[in-house]
Each structure stands twice: as C-alpha cells, then as structure tokens.
Amino acid sequence: VSILNYRKDGIPFWNSGRVLPIHADRSEPKLISHYMAIQQDVTIIQQTKRETATWNSTEVAMWLETVCLGEYAQMFISQEIDGKSLLLLEKEDLITLGISEDHIKFFM
Hints:
Helix content: 25-40%
Strand order of the largest sheet: 1-2-3
Mean pLDDT: 85
Number of strands: 3
Largest sheet: 3 strands, antiparallel
Low-confidence stretches: none
Distance between the termini: 24 Å
Radius of gyration: 18 Å
C-alpha cells in the first residue's frame, strides 16, 4: 500500500508499508503475539511512474536502488543508459554489462 504522507515541515512524500505477524512460538504457528510494521519512502518510484522510456540515466539508477540493484547504479550512469536504452537491453547486453544471472530477471 502506498500512502501520501507529510513530513513535519509539510513536504509531501510517498510511503509504502507492510504489516507482518510475529508468531509467539513455532509450535503454535497460528498464535500471533505481535505485529511488525515496515515502511519505506517510495517517493522516487511515484515520481518516475511516467513512461520508462522518458527516464534519464539518473532516474534509471534510482529505479535500480529501489529494486535492490543499487550495485549497478553507478555503471548505468557512467554508461549513460537511459530509460529508452534500458528497455532495449537484451540478456546478452546485461551479461556484457556484468549483471549477474540472478539479477537479470529484474530487467526482463
């Protein structure tokens, strides 16, 4: 779930949240003792929801960060891979760029 929220200084930001159950004991998996809430600022994702082909290389790098592939962000910036180029990448191109086999699925 994404919610528009506001910082104390009034600046808006998008917040994504999840609530997960914490089970009391492995022997009693149906017994929930607590809930844990996790939230993440997803403002960048909301701002870049326009067509991927219009992203510049910095926005591609921000997308990589949000999908936990930040290790490749600097390379995409230095190679000037923008949204249009990103959409045209084939598996062989990703391998040449050094993207691991495990991570290629995020691009296909």
